[in-house]
Design goal:
Elements: H1 32-46, H2 60-69, H3 73-85, H4 92-106, H5 111-117, H6 121-133, H7 151-168, H8 180-183, H9 186-210, H10 214-233, H11 256-267, H12 291-295, H13 299-305, H14 321-325, H15 332-344, H16 352-366
Helix pairs in contact: 1-9, 3-7, 4-6, 6-7, 7-9
Length: 367
C-alpha cells in the first residue's frame, strides 16, 4: 500500500484498583450515611480535619512505643478486648486534649471541621479515651503499610470499637442518614474503614508526598473554580462559536469579567472548547451577562435570572490568575460583601411592582 501507516495509539494504563478500594457503585444506598460517618470519625481520630491534611509516613522509631506494648497479634487482640471492654473514665489529660482540639476546630471552616464541632464533648472524650486505654500514644495507622500487620489491626480495633460507641449514642445521627444496624455491623465498618485508610488516604498522602502543595491545587479546582466554571459554562449556550484552538472568544451579551475568567482558565489547560451556538443560556448567574445587555432585557427575562446570584467580581479582578486567587476562596457572604454587591449594583433587577405586574399578567393569561 502507498498509504503511510498511522502511528500506533499508545493506550493509557488503567490505574490498578487498590485491594481495599470500594467502588462507588458498590456502596449500598442505605450505607452512604454510615460511610460518611466512618470517614469523619477516622479523620477526627487522626486529627486530619481538612482535605489538605494527609497522614504522615511513619518511621520505625515512631512505631517503637507500640512494639514495646504489644508483642504478638494474639497479645494485641487480648489486651485490647480487655482494655476497651472496661468503662474507664476520661482522665484530666483527655479533657484537656478535647478542649484544645475543639478550640482548634473553631478556627477552621472546612466541612469536616464543621461536622466535628457538632459532636458532643463526651463523644470526643470517649474517642480519645479509647486511644489512650489501648496504649496508643496517638491514632496514626500506617497507610503505606500492611493493613493486616501487627501495628495496623490495633488501630482498626480501636476505630471499630469507638465508632460503635459514638454511633450508637447517636453522635452522627444529626449529620448523616445513619442506619444503626450498619453501625453495629463490625464487618461493614471494618471494610469501609480499610477502604478509606488504605485506599483514599494512602492515595492522598502519596500525591502530597510526590508533589507538596498539589492537593491544595486540586481542591481549589474542585471546590472553588469548578463550581463557578460550571455555573457559568455548564450550558452549551453559554459559549461562543469556537471552531478552532484553545481560545475563549467574545460573545454578544456576555460580561467582560466572564470572558476574562474563561480566558485565564483556558490558558491553563490543554483541552479544546466545543463548537457552540449563540442562543442565550438560562441557568446562569446574573453577571454572566454584561450590565448593558441585562438591563435591556424585558422585565420577564430579567426576572428569570434575578435569583441566580453573582458568581464573579468586576473585570479588574478577573484579568490574571493572581487576581482570581484573592477572591476564589471566600465564602459567599464575604465574597458578596467585598466584591459581589458592587457588581450587583450595576444590574437593574425587577422592582416589586414589576414582579407583581408579571404575576397579574400571568393570572390573566390563564383565564
Amino acid at each position: 500500500s502507498n498509504h503511510a501507516s498511522a502511528p500506533a495509539r499508545v493506550s493509557k494504563k488503567k490505574k490498578k484498583a487498590h485491594r481495599w478500594a470500594i467502588p462507588k457503585k458498590d456502596v449500598p444506598e442505605e450505607g452512604k450515611g454510615v460511610q460518611k460517618a466512618i470517614h469523619t470519625h477516622c479523620r477526627i481520630l487522626m486529627q486530619l480535619l481538612t482535605s489538605r491534611d494527609v497522614p504522615e509516613r511513619l518511621t520505625e522509631e515512631m512505631k517503637a512505643p507500640f512494639k514495646k506494648w504489644f508483642k504478638s497479634a494474639d497479645d494485641v487482640q487480648a489486651q485490647l478486648n480487655t482494655l476497651l471492654a472496661n468503662v474507664i473514665p476520661a482522665t484530666e489529660a483527655v479533657y484537656q486534649k478535647v478542649a484544645d482540639f475543639l478550640n482548634s476546630v473553631e478556627a477552621m471552616d472546612a466541612q469536616i471541621a464543621i461536622d466535628t464541632a457538632k459532636l458532643r464533648d463526651h463523644h470526643l472524650r470517649s474517642m480519645s479515651t479509647a486511644v489512650a486505654n489501648a496504649g496508643l500514644p496517638w491514632f496514626k495507622p500506617d497507610v503505606f503499610g500492611d493493613a493486616e500487620s501487627l501495628y495496623n489491626p490495633a488501630h482498626e480495633h480501636v476505630f471499630v470499637h469507638s465508632f460503635r460507641v459514638v454511633g450508637t449514642l447517636f453522635g452522627y445521627s444529626g449529620m448523616y442518614d445513619i442506619k444503626m444496624a450498619l453501625v453495629r455491623n463490625d464487618a461493614f465498618v471494618q471494610r469501609f474503614y480499610r477502604s478509606f485508610v488504605y485506599g483514599y488516604m494512602k492515595d492522598q498522602a502519596g500525591i502530597e508526598g510526590r508533589q507538596p502543595g498539589q492537593l491544595s491545587v486540586n481542591i481549589m479546582k474542585n471546590n472553588i473554580t469548578r463550581p463557578r466554571e460550571d455555573c457559568l459554562a455548564s450550558e452549551k449556550d453559554c459559549h461562543s462559536d469556537d471552531e478552532g484552538g484553545n481560545v475563549a472568544r467574545e460573545k454578544p451579551g456576555r460580561d467582560a469579567a466572564v470572558h476574562s475568567f474563561f480566558d485565564v482558565l483556558t490558558r491553563r489547560r490543554d483541552d479544546r472548547m466545543a463548537d457552540l451556538s449563540r442562543v442565550l443560556p438560562t441557568q446562569v448567574p446574573i453577571n454572566y451577562f454584561s450590565p448593558d445587555f441585562f438591563n435591556n432585557m424585558t422585565v420577564r427575562e430579567r426576572a428569570s435570572y434575578a435569583k441566580n446570584g453573582i458568581a464573579l467580581p468586576t473585570k479588574d479582578h478577573c484579568r490574571t490568575w493572581g487576581a482570581i486567587q484573592k477572591w476564589k476562596g471566600l465564602n459567599k457572604a464575604v465574597f458578596m460583601a467585598q466584591y459581589g454587591n458592587a457588581k450587583l449594583l450595576l444590574y437593574s433587577l425587577p422592582t416589586p411592582e414589576e414582579l407583581e405586574q408579571l404575576r397579574v399578567d400571568d393570572l390573566m393569561d390563564t383565564d
